[in-house]
Amino acid sequence: MTQHPNPLASYSVRNVKTFIGMEGPGFNATLCRDGKPVAFVIDDANGGCFHFQWTSPPEGTALEAICKQIPPTDFEGLSIAYSPDRFLSQLVDDYENDKRLRRIAKKKTLFRIKGDDPDEWRTLNVVGEKATQYLAKKYGEQLEAVYGQGAAP
Questions:
Q1: N or C: which terminus of the chain has fewer CB atoms within 10 Å of its end residue's CB?
Q2: What is the value of pTM for the model shown?
Q3: What is the model's pLDDT at position 16?
């Protein structure tokens, strides 16, 4: 196993399929650690917990142990523990957001300037090297990131 400063950084998802279930959006996905499948995960959108089908039980135990090390989040006076469900939800959200950004980036250049929210991107209705050069000339040192180049997620 590759050592990561953040042990959760070794996890990713692929083969994500989303759908509308009884109580909202659901998904199924393959959970990977260091690029290798460790579980098939289903959120059947019925209001319950996610279903993990682990390739081996120690993989589930390892993820549980890592999640227990993350401090709980306080929300409106409640302490919410970090769990594999919560972690998977974030991974799937990030996956879907990146998929959306890649689709937009086919026809537009996405960029941020210093001070912009890290989750928001400005757009320029052209793509390619000329667009990047234009942004560098227009914004100079204020240009923080161009999606797909360098500091982009």
A1: N
A2: 0.79
A3: 96
